[in-house]
Specification:
153 residues, mainly alpha
Length: 153
């Protein structure tokens, strides 16, 4: 399979995994070394996977931001309480998004919805999420490669 088709498939699969929580992006990313013919192709695929994942997360973010009707009065009260705190401390909010996107705790899907509902700045969300996903996906492909003692091509 050519690198172009691999990139398209990687983007599409990670995009879907961002929107559909039970489709696992990490398993797809773990398969990338088998598809890459060189370390530069592998790095490109990690960037493509991150781009696909964050493009899908933007759709989830906007869904959270655009949800006019809260599921319950309790959730509406929580959003009303947390929204000013998020706005007053955007660095902490971005740090939580970065942590969630890098380690998965709290789940990044949930944090994406919350970031949208709390009206977190979209550029800040995108930057923090992208950094975290690059760390996560890069680690997923790098650690097994290093532990196997494979030289870089």
């Amino acid at each position: 399979m050519s690198l172009a088709w691999t990139c398209i498939g990687c983007f599409a699969a990670t995009f879907v995994s961002a929107i559909v929580p039970w489709v696992n992006a990490e398993i797809m990313v773990l398969a990338l070394p088998a598809l890459a013919s060189s370390s530069s192709a592998l790095a490109l695929l990690v960037v493509i996977a991150t781009a696909g994942q964050m493009t899908g997360k933007l759709a989830v973010y906007w869904a959270g931001r655009g949800s006019a009707a809260c599921p319950s009065p309790r959730v509406a009260r929580m959003i009303a309480r947390w929204e000013p705190l998020c706005a007053a401390s955007p660095g902490r909010a971005a740090g939580l998004v970065a942590l969630s996107s890098a380690v998965g705790i709290p789940p990044f899907f949930v944090m994406t919805l919350v970031a949208g509902a709390l009206r977190m700045d979209v550029a800040r969300f995108l930057a923090a999420g992208t950094c975290g996903r690059l760390i996560r996906f890069g680690t997923l492909v790098l650690v097994p490669h290093v532990l196997a003692g494979r030289p870089w091509a």
